[in-house]
Amino acid sequence: MGAIAKINVDHLIGKEVGTSTILKELARGGMAIVFIAYQRTLKRQIALKILPKKLMTPKTARRFQSEAESAAILSHPNIIPVYEVGETEDFLFFTMQLVQGKSLGRLIDMARKNLLPSRRTIPLEEAVRITMLILDALHYAHGEEIIHRDIKPDNVLVEKHTQRPLITDFGVAKVLRGEDERTPMIQGTPVYMPPEQILGREVDARSDIYAVGTMLFKMLAPELPFPPYSSKTDLLKQKVRRKDSIFIKRPSEINAYADETIDQIVFKATAYRQEDRYADCHLFRQDLDAYMQSL
């Protein structure tokens, strides 16, 4: 975030972009800045995401365009909708729904700081509920031949009043229709990245399943039980080397409310080999639903 953090965008406040007027900055990511904006045509507040051209390379431009185009064709209650895609002299942009709430990553961090040790994780039933809804959305996206490839808590926003989780940031999404596989790129977040993605091999729905399984474990544990590692690169290497499981403890060894069944579900979702994981998100969700019924 070094370059993006240094960019001054004060001059953009009040600027008209497409059908919207920029109101204030909301957040910054690895290559983009998000603002709260007012959509004049429909008289509502929305989120507006820009990529400054001064930071652009052909690769980042393609990624940004891919994020907008991938998300724009998706329509699901648990996926943030994209409204408008465009370009100015200084940046590329797209607009999307403004979610009143926090990221799942933020909620996990807040739980970890609770004074009571027993409340330093997301409650088990809530973690399973969120995971099932995320699986519903991904099953739909996979049916549209889109793989997210960067599922993680920071890319899930939870509405404040409804507690509805919504997936955002399809910036590294793989659109399977006609993609050129001769130049694969390693993209994603090391903690949630499956071995095949690290190795630059073909990813599919089961790659997102690995990330969702890791995210479920993250909600149930104050810290994910990885073996000791010195850097993100070291973690990636260990994920490739350790063919049994990257985790050295089971959920039930960390969370008093977890049991052997949730252990099995998490470890199946995060299996090293794609063929050992759930074949699709629907099967993963079915096991979680049956687990919820048994509680």
Describe this structure in words.
There is one protein chain. With 295 residues, this protein is α+β, with helices and mostly antiparallel strands. Helix content is 36%, strand content 18%. It is built from 10 helices and 11 strands. The strands form 3 sheets. A 6-stranded antiparallel beta sheet has the order 1-2-3-4-6-5, with helices on one face. Helix 6 runs antiparallel to helix 9. The longest helix has 20 residues, at 124-143.
Topology of this structure?
Elements: H1 2-6, E1 16-17, E2 20-28, E3 33-39, E4 44-52, H2 58-72, E5 82-87, E6 91-97, E7 101-103, H3 104-112, H4 124-143, E8 146-147, E9 156-159, E10 165-167, E11 174-175, H5 195-198, H6 205-220, H7 232-241, H8 251-254, H9 260-269, H10 281-294
Antiparallel strand pairs: 1-2, 2-3, 3-4, 4-6, 5-6, 7-9, 8-11, 9-10
Overall SS class: alpha+beta
**Secondary-structure element pattern, one letter each:** HEEEEHEEEHHEEEEHHHHHH
**How is the biggest beta sheet arranged?**
6 strands, antiparallel
User: How many helices does DSSP assign?
Assistant: 10
Mean of all residue-level pLDDT scores: 90
Q: Which stretches are low in confidence, meaning pLDDT under 50 for 5 or more residues running?
A: 178-185
What's the number of extended β-strand segments?
A: 11
Radius of gyration: 19 Å
**Into which percent range does the helicity of residues fall?**
25-40%
Percent of residues in beta strands: 15-25%
Separation of termini? 43 Å
Strand order of the largest sheet: 1-2-3-4-6-5
Oligomer category: single chain
Shape: globular
